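Notebook, p. 212. Picked up where the previous page left off. The plan for this session was modest: take the two constructs that came back from the sequencing core last week, fold each one, and keep the raw output in the notebook itself so nobody has to go hunting through shared drives later. Recording the first one now, exactly as returned: residue sequence, then the structure token string.
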Amino acid sequence: MATDGPAPGGRAWTRGEMIIVFAGTLLVVDLVFAPWHRFAIDVDLEQFGIALPSFRMDRRGIQNPQAFFGIASAVLAALMVVHIVAAKFSSSVPRAEQLHLVGGAVVLGLVVAKLLANNDFLGMGAWAGICLAAALAYGGFLLSQQTSAGTGRRVPTP
């Protein structure tokens, strides 16, 4: 079923809206907190009586390398989530489903560009970011399919 119950504003949450809110929020958290690039040098030579310092550097998705791609995708994903929530709870906010189709594709493109520009030493956050950006793009696609072409009216889902 495409809905999960009515929102306080009276409209039910569609599957596309739920995916955008969930994946967009997690993508922003992933870009800000999870390590996307992990550089580590751990040399254990203490058994030979040599003590060398270890080196470790974690870079988040909004940090270099290619910080612009990470920051732009985090801002766009956050805006998509804010718009869905605002449109759900306020009737004065226009529902712009086609913008989410384009926005999801742009976020996915930005995340892929960030990874293709420097794919050395990728951390877990990078792989999770790809999956979350793809889910966000899919949510935008589902949301765009729920309106009739050009009219902005909702199409009933079976």
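Okay, moving on. Second construct, recorded in the same format:
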Amino acid sequence: MPLFIILGKLTDMAIANMKGAKDRDDKAAHIITSAGGKFISNYYTFGRYDFVAIVELPSAEILAKIIMEIAKWGTVSTETMTALVPEQMYAMAKGT
């Protein structure tokens, strides 16, 4: 399954309601698993982004659907990258 890294910024509304962060995170994890994905990890960060989430999903199309659903909450903006595990890169480099 494709692996995605989601970099996120919290909106002012999300920051004002940090007491609800666990509920938001749980709801996001539920949406991901309901779409056939796996919520691998989530980290709150300091710097350019407020959080980093790593997820596996069946396709980029499902990722887009999930991002649009979560964006409706008005609590985050995201940037997403497709990720490869090292073994995938090694195999591509060998031409296999």
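Notes on construct two before I forget. The longest strand covers residues 3-10.
Flagging for discussion at group meeting.
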